[in-house]
Amino acid sequence: MNLLVVGASYRTTPVATLERLAVAPADLTRTLDRLLAQPYIGEAVVVSTCNRVEVYAAVTGFHGGLGDICEVLAAHAGCVQNDLANRLYVHYDGAAVEHAFRVAAGLDSMVVGEAQILGQLRDAYHAATEAEATGRLLHELMQQALRVGKRAHSETSIDRAGQSVVTAALDVAATHLDGGLPGRPALVIGAGAMGALSVATLSRAGVGPLSVANRGNDRAVRLAESYGASAVPYQDLAAALTGVDVVVAATASTQPVLTRDMLATALADRDTPLVVLDLAVPRDVEPAAAELPGVVVVDIDNLATALRDGPAAADQLAVTRIVTTEVEAFLSWLRGADVAPTVAALRARADDVVTAELRRLAQRRPDLSEEQRAEVAHTVHRVVQRLLHSPTVRARQLAAEPGGDQYTALLRELFDLEVPGSAQADSVPDIGER
């Protein structure tokens, strides 16, 4: 099995495409099942956030695995596979490991260093595990990626500003309001992870009064009570818009929850702009609403262009060094793990040969006593084990080094060993990202 990552993010894909690719929690198990039903995919994890959709997979061949993943993503997005391919990036084997670790460390995030991605990765991994979509390879990759992410945040100051997409969006919102956010009435739509983070961040920013709306009102009430806010019944959403200056929309809806007509009504008799932060993918705000005078819509697309300053270069360099070290350690483990089945097959072949020869000896020398046969068997086994000891130890050492897979392949070739899962992947270009 080889590692393959295929994905789209804010770096390569506009929000309109990310919306179509986004995998809602209700569709996650079905998407994983479709991936596992493909001929070249043995394991899969799907990460779908507000600014990325990625498939991490263990595949038996590069080209076959890539085709399988693209086929599933295209079907899910309802688009032509060739049209989608130009929007995707691809990482294979070592590059896939590096990408996973960079994502976990926050180096690939829209807001460099944000820690929210760690929870999103953890949720994606747990969901895949519950769906029985992960095996040894992705278990190890995800567990190590989460560990690398924690290490990056504990050993460096990459997240010293405590930023997330929410805080970055609110920074942009503040530039459109005289005097900034303090004292501004605000409304958060959605009580999930992003909504809860928005409520907490707005509360710290001193907005007020603060309201929360959610399809499930009980959840909105619990979240509002935690921060001294008030819950707004979802059916009263249109009316609630008329009394606020800032709206954060972060639901999991597949359709816009804020239409052009709703926002146009909310603008009546207003002297101040209405700033709407659309942090959802798919978008919560109807695109036509951005054309209304008096409405400022900040979504993932224009937020990406507004974020230019990240953590200090020294912090990013420190995290990059951690990632580089951890990638090499993981690849060494991977190479060592790959040689184990080959070594086991070699020892099994030796045992078979010894067993066959002892059987022949018993047939040709029936006069040997049980004690003599046992002594011969013990001696032959010892000779074989001593002959194999140094080569197998050395094979493990060489396999842990760069290019070590060649030694494993040579061992299989020399001894004509059949090792399950050891077939060579189809030829692959020297590819990191495309």
Brief rundown of the structure:
By secondary structure, the protein is of the alpha/beta class. It has 16 helices and ten strands.
3D architecture notes:
By secondary structure, this protein is of the alpha/beta class. It is built from 16 helices and ten strands. The chain has helices spanning 15-21, 25-36, 62-77, 81-85, 94-105, 116-130, 136-155, 165-174, 193-204, 217-226, 237-241, 260-266, 300-306, 313-364, 370-399, 405-414, and strands at 2-9, 41-48, 52-59, 89-92, 186-189, 210-213, 230-232, 246-249, 274-278, 295-299. A six-stranded parallel sheet has the order 7-6-5-8-9-10. Strand 2 (41-48) and strand 3 (52-59) form a beta hairpin. The longest helix is centred in the last third of the chain and has 52 residues, at 313-364. It is elongated and about 110 Å long.
